[in-house]
Amino acid sequence: xxxxxxxxxxxxxxxxxxxxxxxxxxxxxxxxxxxxxxxxxxxxxxxxxxxxxxxxxxxxxxxxxxxxxxxxxxxxxxxxxxxxxxxxxxxxxxxxxxxxxxxxxxxxxxxxxxxxxxxxxxxxxxxxxxxxxxxxxxxxxxxxxxxxxxxxxxxxxxxxxxxxxxxxxxxxxxxxxxxxxxxxxxxxxxxxxxxxxxxxxxxxxxxxxxxxxxxxxxxxxxxxxxxxxxxxxxxxxxxxxxxxxxxxxxxxxxxxxxxxxxxxxxxxxxxxxxxxxxxxxxxxxxxxxxxxxxxxxxxxxxxxxxxxxxxxxxxxxxxxxxxxxxxxxxxxxxxxxxxxxxxxxxxxxxxxxxxxxxxxxxxxxxxxxxxxxxxxxxxxxxxxxxxxxxxxxxxxxxxxxxxxxxxxxxxxxxxxxxxxxxxxxxxxxxxxxxxxxxxxxxxxxxxxxxxxxxxxxxxxxxxxxxxxxxxxxxxxxxxxxxxxxxxxxxxxxxxxxxxxxxxxxxxxxxxxxxxxxxxxxxxxxxxxxxxxxxxxxxxxxxxxxx
Length: 546
Fold this sequence. Notes:
14 strands, calcium ion binding, MRH_dom, disulfide bond, endoplasmic reticulum, Man6P_isomerase_rcpt-bd_dom_sf, two-stranded antiparallel sheet, eight-stranded mixed beta sheet
């Protein structure tokens, strides 16, 4: 009888295929057929004790004896389900609550069979959808068999999941197509950029050569111009030194007799080395360590307009420690002089200190009177103009090389990321997805980083940077690992594990922190929809079309 029903069901299935009926109708028919087969098996076989599964039914077939499933003892068949626990493994009481470790099997025909602890049998709570666990007491009347309704709802849910997975699979095929095309585009762009850089490198080398050629005569002309200027300034400096020496002698030679005596030096406090307010004879025999400089007049004041106060020999002006050390290093023979020194010897020593000081204060590029170095002649200006143009062209060529180099590095960085065996994860690159709970907004930027920020406002905290795929060998692309996030106070660096599953759209669906500084994200994406149920046959197809 059972085989005849199976044959009739198979015939119906074949007939439905021929009529191209829907998968939903086909699955419903198969489910009803399976229920019928189960009913037939139960009806035509030996009746099972309550709470026994089909798998364990053979152990309860003997009509006189029952052996405990652990083999510990043998009891009369009548002792099975007699509400008294005889076996150590509780196997003699599958349908009562007598044994503490017992398990009751819910057949749940039309839905999902399951086991429940035998302590729940006849406790007034409906645990089995077929109500088989409540056969005595209040539950016997309160519980009803609703397995078929649950089975139907579960079937519809599964059908909806299949539809969504099929749609996700189709999106994945588009992702694969996009990924392969994008990879080809990047490879082509990389090839073109490398060729352009090779040409740009050659152009840069040529521009550098031309720059050097233009800078060589420019440097010679500028050096020659400066040499003439320096020579002119040397002559002016020598004349100025003589003038200063004469002025200094005239100031010290109060009686204008052509000689300088200690008495004449006594009026000049710069010779008062011990600071007692008087210049002794011994102090007068020694030249001052810090002679008064004659300051240059301001640029906007003519030389003839300088006041006597500006040129006061007693005003030492500003002098730093380095100047003082340099002046202190003069030879001893330059520090002392006799009463009878003539004009040339005395002024040569006195003016030498002042000239050295003036040299230290000389501004680069300016002459003795502060004037600027004269303009270059037209020929030199032309050379400078040519060199400037060559430098600008080299600068542009160098910039082009650097720009091309950066573009190449950016593409190589993108191509070095594992986007799946068929580039199916490529559409996730350069995208970010957010999920918000009661406190934080979490962000996932695939192949880049993970982060969180408070809903109430505040700075973003980095939870990790892209590390690698972390899934098992058989499902490598099911998990992502992000490491080296912001360091936790007195703890490790933050890290994130992203668990991926099939979904119709790319969506961050949850975020949590199961351990301190370790985060877990759940992410749905069509990229992981790797199987499809065939609409005509109901068979599962896991082969990617591309």
